Amino acid sequence: MDASNPTLTVEQAYRAMLAFLEREVELTECSDLADLLAGYRLGADGRTRDPALWDEWLEAVGRTRQLP
After folding, report:
1. What is the C-alpha separation between 45 and 57, in angstroms, rounded?
2. Would you say 18 and 41 are in contact if contact means Cβ atoms under 8 Å apart?
3. pLDDT tens for each residue of 11-42
């Protein structure tokens, strides 16, 4: 990552979160985390399998943007 330009799009941030969780599953072999991750993965069309999940992600991004 280029620390001089740390800005990510909402989609890039989601993909980064997925990559982080995938690595944690590899390291910990935690089945609960693996189950959670399975529901968060993106389909072939690049969208979450559950449209409500994407809306929840956008809400979380909105809350985060309001933080100081």
Report:
1. 17
2. yes
3. 999 999 999 999 999 999 999 999 989 889 99
Give a yes or no: residue 5 inside a domain: no
Q: Which amino acid is at 28?
A: T
pTM, entire model: 0.81
Q: Which residues form the domain of 46?
A: 12-65
What's the 3-state SS for 15-29?
A: HHHHHHHHHHHHHHC
d(CA 67, CA 19): 24
- Domain membership of residue 4 (yes or no) is no
What domain count does the chain have?
A: 1
Q: Quick check: 12 and 18 in contact, CB under 8 A?
A: no
